[in-house]
Design goal:
This protein has 425 residues and is an alpha/beta fold. It folds into 2 domains: 233 residues, Glycogen Phosphorylase B (Rossmann fold, 3-Layer(aba) Sandwich); 171 residues, Rossmann fold (3-Layer(aba) Sandwich), CATH 3.40.50. Helices cover 37% and strands 13% of the residues. It is built from 16 helices and 13 strands. The strands form 2 sheets. A 7-stranded parallel beta sheet has the order 3-2-1-4-5-6-7, sandwiched between helices. The protein has a 6-stranded parallel beta sheet with strand order 10-9-8-11-12-13, sandwiched between helices. The longest helix has 20 residues. About 1% of the residues have low confidence.
Length: 425
């Protein structure tokens, strides 16, 4: 028997969780007896439609609804240290030292849970693999993220955390030594994307990853169990309309003001001449969904939302992208990969984080067009739409990149990397 547990992220970030659904299926197909997920209550709904077992953790710290209500200080700090000392004190013993049933043989942790994964590995003597679900700079090692988090704390707290994990015999261990298993010669790291989409030498001579970091299959395809209909159901799109899909991803709250402007300009674009045969599906996130519904009077007697626009808090992107003519996006890697897989022209309107680099990747690979968000009017968006959908060159590049993705998806190099680390029968 062999058991693997996956913890992609602390928070409800679909872009980091959904590729791991694909990975879990690959590991099951490869012979791992049990592949489970664990996470805070809000993340269970991501995994549940796909039939994998889910263990709820840290629910007293991050109760259901936490993703929408940022309850800890400092305000707007995305990462919180509140769960670290509970892990030291055994908050995850029920997972890694269960009273009954097999304990996990290893853990696959996300880049953003690198520190937590390292703590689990050291505390419970478990091998691990890191899955990084975005295209990071080669110098932004998981060890650097873990070290930054420890340095963020008061020195005494960080040392107490380290000492509590390594035990009295190694008390006083430095931060650098503690995070070393995440460093250049440490545990394997897999990036679910083909290297051909990323920067690489000789054009980018400094873009060289450590030997233990590997580009693997893009981890796109996943099939929910019935009865899990796509959200929204494609039948809501009126007959004879062509679909445009727009999103700012699962982290939209991090740049809410700019996303709001983007969404409102997209709605205005749909009122320009010639767009009356198109239908726009907007996935805006829970908070902006409520705000925009109120602003446009959705559900009232006199709504001002154009009839060829529909608002949703979140959609099953694979189902929507599959029938779309164009995708407008912020530039998260998961949405980019799904659009390439379905060969749908991309318009990228970056709002922050790694999205600026992804806009450049879109331009270099020729799978879409990109623009600056500043002062981007409805007319500007319309021009980008025409440019993206009217280009034979973009469609040829999409087909070429999809072929690369398919080759990697068939080979599934991630499985052999994980087998080399986590015991396999």
């Amino acid at each position: 028997m062999s058991r693997v547990i996956i913890w992609p992220d602390i928070y409800k970030e679909q872009g980091h969780w959904l590729p791991c659904i694909n990975l879990a299926k690959s590991l099951k197909d490869a012979g791992y007896a049990t592949v489970d997920f664990m996470g805070i209550p809000d993340t269970q709904s991501i995994v549940q439609p796909y039939g994998f077992s889910f263990t709820t953790i840290l629910s007293n710290i991050y109760p259901a609804g936490y993703s929408l209500e940022n309850k800890l200080e400092p305000v707007d700090q995305r990462w919180k240290p509140a769960h670290l000392m509970p892990i030291v004190r055994g908050a995850l013993d029920n997972v890694f030292r269960p009273a009954s049933g097999p304990a996990p043989d290893g853990i696959i942790g996300g880049y953003f849970t690198s520190l937590e994964t390292l703590m689990i590995s050291r505390k419970y003597n478990k091998p691990f693999v890191i899955i990084t679900t975005f295209l990071r700079h080669p110098e932004d090692l998981p060890s650097l993220l873990a070290k930054t988090k420890l340095l963020y704390m008061p020195k005494a707290v960080a040392q107490a955390l380290i000492d509590g994990i390594v035990g009295p015999a190694k008390a006083g261990m430095s931060i650098d030594e503690f995070v070393s298993p995440l460093d250049a010669a440490g545990a394997p790291e897999i990036i679910p994307c083909s290297k051909e989409f990323d920067f690489q030498p000789p054009d980018d001579p400094d873009w060289v990853h450590r030997p233990t970091t590997s580009y693997v299959e893009p981890m796109i395809v996943r099939t929910p169990l019935p009865p899990s209909p796509p959200i929204p159901d494609p039948t809501v799109i009126p007959a004879n309309f062509r679909l445009i899909y727009a999103t700012s991803g699962s982290q939209v709250q991090d740049y809410e003001f700019r996303a709001r402007i983007f969404f409102k300009n997209m709605i205005s674009m749909m009122q320009t001449a010639g767009m009356d045969t198109y239908y726009l599906v907007l996935a805006v996130g829970s908070k902006l969904f409520t705000q925009l519904n109120l602003e446009y009077g959705v559900g009232t007697a006199n709504p001002t939302l154009p009839k060829n626009v529909a608002l949703f808090d979140w959609v099953s992107q694979l189902d929507i992208v599959r029938i779309a003519d164009c995708v407008f996006m912020h530039g998260g890697l998961a949405t980019i990969k799904e659009s390439i897989w379905e060969q749908v022209p991309i318009v990228i309107v970056p709002l922050g984080k790694d999205q600026m680099d992804n806009a450049l990747r879109i331009k270099r690979t020729g799978v879409g067009v990109a623009a600056e968000v500043a002062d981007l009017s409805p007319a500007d968006l319309r021009q980008l739409f025409t440019q993206a959908t009217g280009s034979t060159w973009i469609r040829q590049n999409l087909a070429s990149m999809k072929a690369i993705f398919q080759t990697a998806e068939t080979a599934k190099p991630s499985v052999n990397i994980i087998k080399s680390v986590i015991p396999f029968p």
